[in-house]
Amino acid sequence: MRIFVAGGTGVVGRPLVEALVELGHEVTASTHRSENFSVVEALGARPALMNGLDDAAVRQAIMAAGPEVVINQITALSAPSRDYGKWLETTNRLRSEGTRSLIAAACEAGTRRVIAQSASFMTQPVGSGPTDESAPLYREAPEPIRSHIQANIAAEALVLDTPGIEGVVLRYGFLYGEGTAIGPGGEWATAIQSGELPIVGDGAGRYPFVHVRDAVSATVQAVDRGSPGIYNIVGDEPAPQAEWLPYLAEILGAPQPRRVSEKEAEEQVGGQAVYYGTQLPAASNAKAKAELGLNLAYPSWRQGFREVFS
User: Fold this and answer.
1) Peptide bond into 144 cis (omega under 30)
2) pLDDT, averaged across the chain
3) What is the model's pLDDT at position 183?
4) Strand bridging mode 26-31 / 46-49
């Protein structure tokens, strides 16, 4: 099968391209830097130079590949995130403007299915049980979360509502593993080691973690499995901040994390710190298991964290 992976050298993109090639697919992988061509070629794929915000470049790359399936993994999240709002700005544009260009090109190229990355940690903080894919997104969230959620909503609508396209949205949880912020040398791991990442308030926010390998496996499954729609790609076990932060600190041999009030977190970091730390609902993966055949190598973040940092 001819598959185009937009963002083929990123944290998910690179192992995804490798997995697709190993299955015998004919893969074209985009990158916005020509120096990454050798990386793509080493994976057995054909490189395409593409800026995700350049309409003409997107059209040219996808038309040249003629893909049956397009997988959108483009983000701009590899840079440090000291200013959360600014950190998200380009990714927000890639989700809204970039997805529009990608969908238009895919339609013109006769693509059958488009699979797109989204986020499972943007739902309204209501109720006590895990949320599923029908749960309302947190549209009234404080900035800068609100802009990111709006960009995700726009991207998801383009993928799901375009006639002639089988749209599949994969709402990944917080990624951990090689190359991520929660991996060796990653930003979160480094912050925990230096005691900079605190528990906010009661730390009751439940993080939906997912190992990169499981995100890749689910994406491969979505190439030819599952009805069009939205799927949460998360682990089995919700992770309250008050549990996972001390657990990871212990694994890393770091000091136990300090606690800050919600007010302090909002003043020092931003409203997102309060939402993630105290309000974030758990997310269910039942639909992905039933329809995509999601089979987690790392169902528990506890097992996964220990292996990642072993």
Assistant:
1) yes
2) 95
3) 96
4) parallel
